[in-house]
Design a protein that fits this description.
Layout lengths: L1 E8 L3 H4 L10 H4 L9 E8 L12 E9 L6 E8 L15 E15 L12
Antiparallel strand pairs: 1-2, 2-5, 3-4, 4-5
């Protein structure tokens, strides 16, 4: 079994609103007791064998689909990532994104940052 982990961070409210112009310091600089994993979630996908996954670090996650696998006994998961953030109200162009297809999939779990099974990093 192989486990693939995708960590996602929710976009902060100050980045969503367009009132702030320019670069902002990380929230860790403002609050000493901040948990760096706060507002993160982990998509944990377990497969039966190794599947090559392209590098998607730093890209914007735009689409998740889960279907029945071709063998009709397992699941098939497709993730799509975009190079640029998606503009408000516009649909992402799925043909321009990086697709990650995992098939066959044994299990899929989504863990919030406060879940007891969320991986903890002592460096954080």
């Amino acid at each position: 079994m192989w486990e693939f982990n995708f960590k996602f961070k929710k976009q902060s409210p100050r980045l969503k609103s367009k009132c702030c112009k320019g670069l902002q310091p990380p929230i860790q600089y403002e609050e000493v007791h901040t948990n760096p994993d706060q507002d993160c979630c982990l998509l944990q996908i377990t497969t039966f064998n190794f599947i090559f996954v392209p590098i998607v670090m730093g890209m914007t996650f735009t689409l998740f689909t889960i279907n029945v696998s071709t063998d009709m006994r397992h699941h098939r998961v497709r993730l799509v990532f975009q190079d640029a953030p998606v503009r408000n109200g516009k649909k992402p162009r799925l043909d321009q994104g990086v697709q990650v297809v995992l098939d066959p999939v044994h299990s899929v779990r989504l863990l919030d940052w406060w879940h007891p099974q969320y991986p903890f990093s002592p460096k954080a």
